[in-house]
Every structure is written in C-alpha cells, then in structure tokens.
Amino acid sequence: MAHEFEALRQLDTEQRNPRTEEFDNRSTLEMLAMMNAEDTLVPAAVAAQLPTIATAVDRIADALRNGGRLFYVGAGTSGRLGMLDAYECPPTFGTPPELVQALVAGGVARDRADESAEDDPALGADELRQRGLTAADVVVGIAASGRTPYVVGALQYAASVGAATIALACTRGSAIGKAAALAIEVPVGPEALTGSTRLKAGTAQKLVLNMLSTVTMVKLGKAYSNLMVDMEPSNGKLRVRASRIVSMATGADDAAVERAMTQAGDHVKASIVMLLADVEAAEAHRLLEEAGGVVRLALRLAGREA
C-alpha cells in the first residue's frame, strides 16, 4: 500500500494545482474563469503530440484497411470516452458496429460505475480474448494516470497475440506507454480540482480520440472534401443532412439532389457520383465498388476531375 501511495503521489495527474488553491473561496464567475484558463492549456499539449498521433492513425488505418478491428480499452472516464468514440462511428461513418469496439472495466452501469474492476489486469486480457482479438487488430489503451492495471493487462495480452498496441495517457513515462508499441502521452498538468481527471485530462483524451477515429475514417474514404459521405440517414434530421451534403458536394439544386438520393437508395456517395459524373445509380455504385468506396477515385475512374 505504501508503494502504491508513493507511485500515485508522483503522477502528474495527482498534483495539486497552485493556480486554483483558493478555488472554493471564489465567486462562481471566478471559479469558472479558473477552469477555463486551465482548459486553454490542453490544445497546446495535444499539438505537441501530433507526430505520434499521426503514426497512430496510420497504424489504425492500415489495420482496418486489411480487415482488422479497433478496440478502445479503459476504465472510468477514460473508458467511457473510448465508448463514446466507438459508438459514434456507425452513424457518422457508416461502419459496422463490430469495427470499432470499446471495453470499459466493470461494464457500463446506468446508475453507478463499478470502478473496482480497473484493478484487475487479467480482466482486460480476458475481455479481449472473449472478443476474439487477433494480430490483425489494434488496441488503444486509455488511462489518464497511465497506470490502470485493467488497461495494462489488455495491452500486454494484445501484444502477446501480435495486435498493434497504442497507449493514450496524460502522464510522462506511463506504465501503459511501456506496455504498448506506441505511446501518446499528453501531460496537461494538475487539474483545477485535484485528481479530477475528467477535466483537463478527459478533454485531452477526447481531442485525441476525435483525431484517431476521424482521420482514420477519412483515410478509409469516409469523407469527400470535408463532408461526411458515409453517414447513415436513418431518421428525418439525418436525411436532411445527407441531402445537404450531396448538395454541397455537387452544387446541384434540391430537385436534382432529391432524384439522385431516391434513385441511389439514400446512398450519399452514390448520389454524389451520379451527379458529378452524370451516370445512373447502378453505374455510380459500380464505380464506387471498383474504387473501394473512395468518391474521388470513383470520379477519376469515370473520367471526371476530382
């Protein structure tokens, strides 16, 4: 226990913030200003890690392009942030739900999280084993402290089966960084409220996860320019958004967009190719299949500048 206490005391995320020591003695507006000032430090800390994040994206994209899956593994806030990113991939990028998965120590209870499960390294390994992890997959271990046993165990198991391993921590020289082949370490310093790593550390993790999933999916052809062209128009609002995306991509009027969307079966990519390449729906789908789903390549195959 003494060793654990000393190890925890040394973590960047557990230090007391000298800028907020009078936090509880300030007005509401002053407290908010203190928090906001701390939050402004996060983007620069993330920016310093962009080369490493780029390497991580390339590894993830390569794995997914070759039939692998992406697993986020974490506990507490870190795990829930991974879960959020995974859950957003199907509606945003039209991915199957098994492509990006999240493992959260103790599962996700509606009323109360089981925080004790994070202390078991075997549990992280077991849950990946149950998901049938292979060497084709990628595992991203997420822990603000960088030392969560559940995450360490998951990364060690992933490495043992030959899967690519990436760590995302908010401390330097982290245990999960040592367990992974690639370590993204974003030290954001002490929190406004000491040890509350759902604050700056959580923000940093969210920013990095946004980058990992978004840029990976763009590299896999899920975007055309800066438009989400693989989104699923599964309700009225999303169908309107899909139509607007087709309109912005092509410059076509509303009537032409509506015709294309109807003929293409609400398929955004096919509608764009139909309008820009002046082809029928079947030919648009064929071009996209030949192009691996990449709109720019499909347009080039159709002899159109993209």
What does this structure look like?
- The chain is α/β, with parallel strands linked by helices.
- The chain folds into 2 domains: 212 residues, Glucose-6-phosphate isomerase like protein, domain 1 (Rossmann fold, 3-Layer(aba) Sandwich), CATH 3.40.50.10490; 79 residues, Orthogonal Bundle (Helicase, Ruva Protein, domain 3), CATH 1.10.8.1080.
- The chain is 52% helix and 10% strand.
- The chain has 14 helices and 7 strands.
- The strands form 2 sheets. It has a 5-stranded parallel beta sheet, sandwiched between helices.
- A hairpin with a 2-residue loop joins β6 and β7.
Task: List the topology elements.
Elements: H1 2-9, H2 28-39, H3 42-47, H4 50-65, E1 70-74, H5 76-93, E2 100-104, H6 121-130, E3 138-143, H7 149-160, E4 164-169, H8 175-179, E5 182-185, H9 200-219, E6 223-224, E7 227-228, H10 236-250, H11 254-263, H12 268-277, H13 281-290, H14 295-301
Parallel strand pairs: 1-2, 1-3, 3-4, 4-5
Antiparallel strand pairs: 6-7
Helix pairs in contact: 4-9, 5-9, 6-7, 10-12, 11-12, 12-13, 13-14
